[in-house]
Amino acid sequence: MPGKRQPTAVVEANGRKHLTEAEKDERLDREVHVPPPDAAVPPKWLPKRLHTEYREIGEILRAAGLYAELDRDVLGQYFLSRERWLRADKKAGAAIRAGDEKQAREWTSVQGTYFKQARQCAEAMGLSVTSRCRIVVPSAIQNAARAPAEGEADEFTQRLRARQAAVLAEAE
Question: Is 14 part of any domain?
Fold first, then answer.
């Protein structure tokens, strides 16, 4: 059974398979490229007290090429789950110190649930070392076969190319 399809940039980086320009263009045509946002904007449903940290981590992920606008809710859910886990941890600790075994068991169970949620979101976003090793992020390359010539490009395409060039320059 064949393995999971890898992005063209990863296939080329591995060096095990030679792709002709036509094959590269064809593969790139079938890949989905999501441009990085200008800033990491927290979702409206996220409590205001978490917005600052959301922006900090979001900017780090954006600079690393691991954040797109589509990831907004997953990152927000991570912060919400982590905050709930911390609250449950405090309650479980208090119950353990008080010697209330029943309450300690209940809060430990709740704490475990929130920890699993936070860990799952963190792994999806590349917030742990092992998850970053598994995430494959091809660079945002525009397919030359589809792109119109420089003189034919409309204003939107020109702005998009300028933004992509700025992102690539920032990454280097």
Answer: yes
Expressed as residue numbers, the domain containing 82 is 8-171
Whether residue 11 contacts residue 141, with contact meaning beta carbons closer than 8 Å, is answered with: no
The strand ranges marked E within 33-84 are none
**What is the average pLDDT score of the chain?**
81
User: 92 in a domain, yes or no?
Assistant: yes
The residues near 55 (Cβ < 8 Å, ≥ 6 apart) are 39, 40, 41, 42
Task: Classify residue 3: in a domain, yes or no.
Answer: no
Answer yes or no: are the C-beta atoms of 81 and 117 closer than 8 Å: yes
% of residues, the chain, pLDDT over 70: 77
pLDDT digits (tens, 9 = 90+) for 109-155: 999 999 999 999 988 888 877 776 665 544 444 444 455 555 666 77
Other CB atoms within a 10 A radius of the CB of residue 167 amount to 17
Identify the burial level of 110 via C-beta atoms within 10 angstroms of its C-beta, where 0-12 means exposed, 13-18 middle and 19 or more buried: middle
Claim: this prediction has a pTM higher than 0.85: no
| Domain count within the chain | 1
How far the first Cα of the chain sits from its last, in Å, is: 38
Contacts of residue 141, defined as CB under 8 A and 6 or more positions apart, other chains included, come to: 9, 28, 33
**pLDDT at residue 141 in the model:** 42
Q: What are φ and ψ of residue 71, in 5° steps? A: -90, 0
